[in-house]
Amino acid sequence: MSGTHEHDDDHGHHHKETFITKYIFSMDHKMIAKQYLITGLIMGFIGIAMSLLFRMQLAWPGESFPLFEAVLGKWAPGGVMDADVYLALVTMHGTIMVFFVLTAGLSGTFSNLLIPLQIGARDMASGLLNMISYWLFFTSAVIMVCSLFVESGPAAAGWTIYPPLSALPMAQSGSGAGMTLWLVSMAIFIASSLLGSLNYIVTVINLRTKGMSMTRLPLTTWALFVTAIIGVVSFPVLFSAALLLIMDRSFGTSFFLSDIFIQGEVLHYQGGSPVLYEHLFWFLGHPEVYIVILPAMGIVSDVMATNARKPIFGYRAMIMSIIAIAFLSTIVWGHHMFISGMNPFLGSVFTFTTLLIAIPSAVKAFNWITTIWKGNLQMNVAMLFSIGFVSTFITGGLTGIILGDSTLDINVHDTYFVVAHFHLVMGISALYGLLAGVYHWFPKMFGRMMNKNLGYVHFWITAICAYGVFFPMHFVGMAGVPRRYYENTAFPMFDELTDVNILITVFALIAGATQLVFVGNFIYSIFYGKKAEQNPWNATTLEWTTPVEHIHGNWPGAIPEVHRWAYDYSKTNENGDYVLPGQDFVPQIVPLQAGEEELTH
């Protein structure tokens, strides 16, 4: 460990970096974080565009839109969307948003940017492995986008890719080459996630600077560390499912197939079970929700403490709840399968473990609220997105109690109620966490500030539209409207809900357009934003002690030592004065003074 501290001052000046080594095949964690972020944002826009296309189809079924013909070509003859491509759009939207935007955008970006900076390390444990994990991610993203242009169409079995639709290439147009590319892309994506996660875990355990004990780590690093552990435990299970599915499709095995009839003809498959695939998929699929949400929780904790000018409330309880969520998330997957013919006793076991996970989640929610309570709030854009995160996390989480109960779930399973629930608690909340992190650490990444007023516009319109989209969706679901249906005109009882669908779609279109404000602000600020100070938010954590100009190795000279926990805001001595005169925060590198105690409880 001492070797990481004893680099000389001119560390990183041994060779001239070319454009390719600096911006493309970089091993510097800060550059790799930017690569993840920008790739994630590009994928995000592809995912959002797809959702707007199928929302238009849901609001105005059977209508002709010249836009459809322009974008979808042969899949929208005369501007009317084909039923096959509708399911493909839903499938690819879900896949891209869950894996390529939320998983890679949050874990990939912020684990790379913050772990070395917040623990006091020169870089990741292995720069080469880090670079390879990004390029595997990039390759899988390119393959996923390429699958959109296959003649038979992209994968179309829902983002969960259940067999037999995904296992029989002849089942439908979206089960052909597009599905094969989906599986190849996901296999490469999982390899990338595993390499990245192992790197993050080793870095946190081995490369912490002197004095940086585990109980002095910022909560963001704790969340990213535990997220990496969940990824290592659960991603290989999805890899095995994808591998077995490839064998079913291409090599004539029948792991997930049995007793299949096509047009009266019996296929030769026997002995497999599609429910086995469900178990394998959801054993990753549920921890995946927390792989997405935990980094956002960590980011929100740091942003809130910094902008409330108060220590985070219940630091150790927050760590324990992160660990409890990680453990419980791996034993609740069966609640996705309550109506798959599961034994009712097993259903009640999964109900119990599912409702149990509400406890650590509630601990976090109450602690965030208590952190803000009576704080000296700095209402910048990152703080607004953090408060928005707590709001959507609570409102989205409450409906999870209904879905987690095996008897109540039967009534709303596979309706828009489920879509509304997980988009609020996972999609919107995680995006808010991502955006809070981007606005907060943008000066650290690019050395410039984003425009605050454009940020306020972005937040308020997004927040109003997010509830405008997903709040009415709960009612559509309770009325019984099934998800993934291309149109509901065959059911006269749903006719009166057409107006609600139009309302949801209008909100979605406005929200989609508003993200262009963010992208404009983001790109403009990288080049022309106001130059950032070293510590623009007056934060205590180590990343703000590095110079604004990025250098290889993060700190010129020796790495600073840590003497206190990460949340010494508004701390006073026995005379009621601030510990550092005229400064309402004490950085982690300032030694404890006589008679001063460290508050890590």
TrEMBL record:
In the record, biological process GO terms are: aerobic respiration; electron transport coupled proton transport; respiratory electron transport chain
Q: Does the keyword Metal-binding apply?
A: yes
Subcellular location(s) per record:
Membrane
Q: Identify its membrane topology class.
A: Multi-pass membrane protein
Residue ranges spanning the membrane: these are: 36-54, 85-115, 127-150, 179-202, 222-247, 280-301, 313-333, 345-369, 381-404, 416-442, 454-480, 500-524
Domain Cytochrome oxidase subunit I profile: residue ranges: 19-573
Q: Which PROSITE patterns match?
A: COX1, COX1_CUB
Any keyword Electron transport? yes
What is one GO cellular-component annotation here? membrane
Supply the InterPro entries for this chain: Cyt_c_oxase-like_su1_dom (IPR023616), Cyt_c_oxase-like_su1_sf (IPR036927), Cyt_C_Oxase_1 (IPR000883), Cyt_c_Oxase_su1_BS (IPR023615)
GO MF annotation: an example? heme binding
Q: Which UniProt keywords apply?
A: Electron transport, Heme, Iron, Membrane, Metal-binding, Respiratory chain, Transmembrane, Transmembrane helix, Transport
Question: Would you identify the family this protein belongs to, as annotated?
Answer: Belongs to the heme-copper respiratory oxidase family.
Name this protein carries in UniProt: Cytochrome c oxidase subunit I
Q: Which organism is it from?
A: Cellulophaga lytica (strain ATCC 23178 / DSM 7489 / JCM 8516 / NBRC 14961 / NCIMB 1423 / VKM B-1433 / Cy l20)
